[in-house]
Amino acid sequence: MLGLSNQKDLLVLSEDLLLGEGMGRKCYIDPEDKSLCVKIASQRAKRSAKREINYFKRLHKRGKSFEMIADYHGDIITNLGSGNLYELVRDHDGRISKNLEHYLALDDEVITFSILELIENLRLYLKKEYILFSDLDMDNILVKKINEDDYKLMVIDGIGDNNQIPLLEYFPLLGIKRCIKKWDKFKRGVTKKFPDLTKSIKDFND
Asked: Does position 57 have pLDDT exceeding 60, yes or no?
């Protein structure tokens, strides 16, 4: 649920809760709610983190689906400074979901075919909901096991537009051009490591 958490109590984060670091932010498991994670932005990254949060809030107001995006759940004060709460993507068995590269690196024909279908589902979802993205890569797309037979992709970072003035949200023709460019970059990242998939991922606007 979108909103502010109770900021009266300081949330204590320790290094054993650290999930990873990137884009100027560190990400920790929330010790009080295992379904959430806490992102702590460096001083330099605070402005871009704020832009992302504002974009998430606008998506909520517009009634957009968060089916394939790890949602924002508010802000919290921690021993490491102010933090932002996001959904922590876990499989049905409670384990933290693994990223896209992990599954493609298994080099299993059946698994790879399934992953390609999930990538296509993500492309269609981003187009249908008109979700802007600035930095899709294999590290920030997780494969969530819904059950033993069903999976879906979840984007955990890189959602929104880097521009200070969110013009692309209100001019879809420009926004789609940006999405095409960013999706092409994502495709190049995948096919650089997995050349056999070059013709298997559609262009964004197909």
From this structure: yes
